[in-house]
Amino acid sequence: MTIVIHSARLVDEGQVTQDAWVAFAEGIVSARGTGPVWREIAPAEIVDAAGALLSPGLIDIHGHGGGGAAYDDGLDAIRTARAVHLAHGTTRAVLSLVTASVDDLAARVAGIADLAERDATILGSHLEGPFLDAAHKGAHTESLLRAPDAASVDRLIEAGRGTVRHVTLAPELPGGLAAVAQFVAGGVAVAVGHTNATRDQAAAAFAAGATLLTHAFNAMPGIHHRAPGPILAAMQDPRVTLELIADGIHVHPDVIALAFAGASGRIALITDAMAAAGAPEGHYLLGGLAVTVRDGTARLDADGAIAGSTLTQDAALRLSVECGIALPDAFAAATGVPARALGLDDRHGSLRVGAVADAVLWDDGLRVRDVWVDGIRHVG
């Protein structure tokens, strides 16, 4: 069945196109253009956008759950959490796993690999740990943190069967740079994060093949005028994408604007959402650690550290625009930029002809009206 969405303001690939239309057929974008030409297609279903904003589906490369469920907890939990984020425009996602034993992580990435074979909206897994700096552990169990070793890295790569999309590690740990090279050789993107790395250590990791900075500004040294740290190392390297939790809690709105200015075209809006996203406030567990969510902020009971977020990507978009980020740049940060950061093919993160037919129609307040995945309407 062919579907045409017409009379839209299409925001895609860095620009806004007025009076645009997009046609979906057999799960892909079959045609697009402007004006009334769409009438020649004779579609089976017609959607009049009436001037509303139309974008590619959002892609979250770092999130841990939602709807009261965590991605660490198996198939049913994954389905519950993904449904929450789909309703907020995230059509495809990488499932992030918190620190656990290598045995447990291997089992979890193997399960996600099985799921990804049946559900193409699951892009794979993200290992946030266990190769993290204890002093910047955030909401990770300190007793499970460790330096990387070749055998453990191999085991995790093999367990994922090509679906471990990226891994966060602290490159200053013993064996850290070797692990960067080993993961990259295994087809895994490496993110510097939960780290005490200096600027030079971070730059060495990027030279070794790391291409991401995990939730920039959080769980790492800040920018100091005599010690610029990993953030500036990432901003200065055009190969590196900076993840950003744009919720106004993890990162101040002025710093959100600074990040977009300092790494133009290389900001990926992530949620880092834990189970409480889209769920009532109260008490939760994150990787076995007790968390209390109050006033939209998740904090560890033990020490008050921020423990993930309750963010959805549509909210991150709205705040970014409120911070003065141009609409095309904000949307790119939730679509094309994360797709490129993980080396996804050009069928993702855009509504170009031949791309997967994932799309979101937005109201004037940048709230989700309709969502399509593979050309099938799921929300609206």
From TrEMBL:
Its EC number is 3.5.1.25. Pfam families: Amidohydro_1. Gene3D superfamilies: Metal-dependent hydrolases, Urease, subunit C, domain 1. Residues 54-375 form the Amidohydrolase-related domain. The keyword Nucleotidyltransferase does not apply. InterPro entries: Amidohydro-rel (IPR006680), GlcNAc_6-P_deAcase (IPR003764), Metal-dep_hydrolase_composite (IPR011059), Metal_Hydrolase (IPR032466). GO terms for molecular function: N-acetylglucosamine-6-phosphate deacetylase activity. SUPFAM superfamilies: Composite domain of metallo-dependent hydrolases, Metallo-dependent hydrolases. Belongs to the metallo-dependent hydrolases superfamily. NagA family. The keyword Hydrolase applies. It comes from Microbacterium memoriense. The gene is nagA. Coiled coil: none annotated. This is N-acetylglucosamine-6-phosphate deacetylase. It comes from the Bacteria. Keywords: Carbohydrate metabolism, Hydrolase, Metal-binding.
